[in-house]
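Retry 2 of 3 after timeout on previous attempt. Resubmitting structure tokens to design endpoint.
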């Protein structure tokens, strides 16, 4: 039997077009997370300190940045997350979202930094 390979994504930019940073120096630590967003769920405002990317296994996830820019990713789509940009994920759909994320980090490096919701005010911009 022949194995079918499909490249879902090849990029050196996050979804908002920003260039990805260099990998951290030293021994890598790879982290894989599966996240399940119930209908209506939102993450807290946060930013990432390392390169991370993933695939939407089920549903549609909208990423909203502090400046109001946003993009919705659907089942089967790959996403390269923004780094250093405050944002949150929202399930605006009618089914749970399952998201598998992969992080390229270093041992003991914090990969996500949480921000207080009351500090942020989102100004809506057109959806891409």
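Retry 2 succeeded. Sequence:
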């Amino acid at each position: 039997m022949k194995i079918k390979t499909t490249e879902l994504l090849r990029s050196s930019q996050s979804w908002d077009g920003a260039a990805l940073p260099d990998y951290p120096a030293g021994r890598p630590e790879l982290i894989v997370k599966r996240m399940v967003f119930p209908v209506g769920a939102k993450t807290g405002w946060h930013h990432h300190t390392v390169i991370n990317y993933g695939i939407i296994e089920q549903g549609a996830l909208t990423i909203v940045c502090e400046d109001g820019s946003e993009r919705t990713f659907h089942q089967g789509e790959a996403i390269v997350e923004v780094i250093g940009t405050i944002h949150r994920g929202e399930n605006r759909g009618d089914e749970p979202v399952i998201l598998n994320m992969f992080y390229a980090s270093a041992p003991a490096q914090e990969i996500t930094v949480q921000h207080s919701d009351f500090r942020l005010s989102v100004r809506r911009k057109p959806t891409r």
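Attempt log closed. The radius of gyration is 15 Å.
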